[in-house]
Design a protein that fits this description.
This protein has 254 residues and is α+β, with helices and mostly antiparallel strands. The protein has a single domain, classed as PPM-type phosphatase domain (Phosphatase 2c, domain 1, 4-Layer Sandwich). It is built from eight helices and ten strands. The strands form two sheets. It has a five-stranded antiparallel β-sheet. Strands 2-3-4-5-8 form a five-stranded antiparallel β-sheet, with helices on one face. It is globular and about 50 Å long. The chain starts with a strand and ends with a strand. Bound molecules: calcium ion. Calcium ion (CA) binds next to helix 6.
Length: 254
C-alpha cells in the first residue's frame, strides 16, 4: 500500500510565533504533530525537540541499546512497536525536561505529542496531551485518541457533557505533557490499515474551533491532498486564535 501525506500550519491571527511542530516521513511511515507550551521561545523549542527526538529514535537515525533490548523482549510485532513508541515518548520527555532545567529561558516548557507510525500493514498510534489522531474510513470519522485533559476526565466521570466541555475556560488544561511532567504514560493502539483510509493528526488549534461533525463533513467534501489546508483555513474562518496544524495521511493501493 502507498502513503501520501500533506500538512498545513498557521500561527493564527493572535500569536507572532508558531509553537506547533510537525513531521512527515512517507518513506518510514512516520507522522507527528506536537503543540508546545511555555513562555516566549520555550513552546517552540519543546515541540521541536520532542519531534526531533522521536524522529531519531523511530527511524534509526540514532540507535539506542535499550531499545534493541526492548525489541528482543517482546514477541508480538504490534506489542514491540507500541513499546518502542512509549519508550521514544519517554526519551523525548526526559530530553525536553532536561533542557528546561538547564536553561532558564526554557523553564517549565512542555509539549503535546501525537504520533502515527505505519508499518507492516498496521497503523500504530501513540499520544500524550490533547493533540489528536482521527481515522476517516468509509465516510465515517473515528477519534483514535482520548485527550489527556481535565475536562476529558470530567466527561468520563459524567460531570460534564462533551458539548459543554468545548466552552469551559479550563478546557485546555492537560493532565500530562511531554517534558513538563517528566515520565509520561502515552496511550497506544494498533489498527489494520485499508486502502482509502485517511488519517488526520492535529493540534487543538483545529479541534477548538471545529467539532468532530465539522471535521467529518470536510473529510467527505475535500480530497485528502487538500484536506490539511482546508481544515486550517476553516479553523481560521471559525475564529481559531491559536496556532493551527493539520497532517493528513492517505492510504492507497500501489
Ligand atoms: Ca495549541
Amino acid at each position: 500500500m502507498k502513503l501520501e501525506a500533506c500538512a498545513w500550519t498557521d500561527p493564527g491571527p493572535v500569536r507572532d510565533n508558531n509553537e506547533d511542530s510537525y513531521h512527515l516521513d512517507e518513506d518510514n511511515g512516520l507522522f507527528i504533530v506536537a503543540d508546545g507550551m511555555g513562555g516566549h521561545a520555550a513552546g517552540e523549542e519543546a515541540s521541536r525537540l520532542a519531534v526531533k527526538t522521536l524522529r531519531e529514535l523511530l527511524t534509526g537515525e540514532q540507535s539506542d541499546p535499550d531499545e534493541t533490548r526492548l525489541d528482543r523482549q517482546v514477541g508480538d510485532p504490534g506489542d514491540a512497536l507500541r513499546e518502542r513508541l512509549r519508550y521514544a515518548m519517554n526519551q523525548a520527555s526526559a530530553r525536553v525536561r532536561k533542557e528546561s532545567l538547564e536553561n532558564l529561558a526554557f523553564a517549565g516548557m512542555g509539549t503535546t505529542v501525537a504520533v502515527l507510525l505505519i508499518e507492516g500493514g498496521q497503523a500504530h498510534v501513540a499520544h500524550v496531551g490533547d493533540s489528536r489522531v482521527y481515522l476517516f474510513r468509509d465516510g465515517m470519522l473515528a477519534r483514535l485518541t482520548r485527550d489527556h485533559t481535565v475536562v476529558q476526565q470530567e466527561i468520563d466521570a459524567g460531570r460534564l457533557t462533551p458539548e459543554l466541555a468545548r466552552t469551559v475556560p479550563h478546557r485546555n488544561y492537560l493532565t500530562q505533557s511531554v517534558g513538563y511532567h517528566g515520565p509520561v504514560e502515552p496511550d497506544t493502539l494498533t489498527r489494520a490499515i485499508e486502502p482509502g483510509d485517511v488519517f488526520l493528526l492535529c493540534s487543538d488549534g483545529v479541534t477548538d474551533p471545529l467539532d468532530d461533525a465539522r471535521i467529518a463533513t470536510l473529510a467527505r467534501e475535500v480530497d485528502a491532498p487538500d484536506l490539511a489546508e482546508r481544515l486550517v483555513r476553516d479553523a481560521l474562518d471559525r475564529g481559531g486564535e491559536d496556532n493551527i496544524t493539520a497532517v493528513v495521511v492517505r492510504i492507497s493501493h500501489g
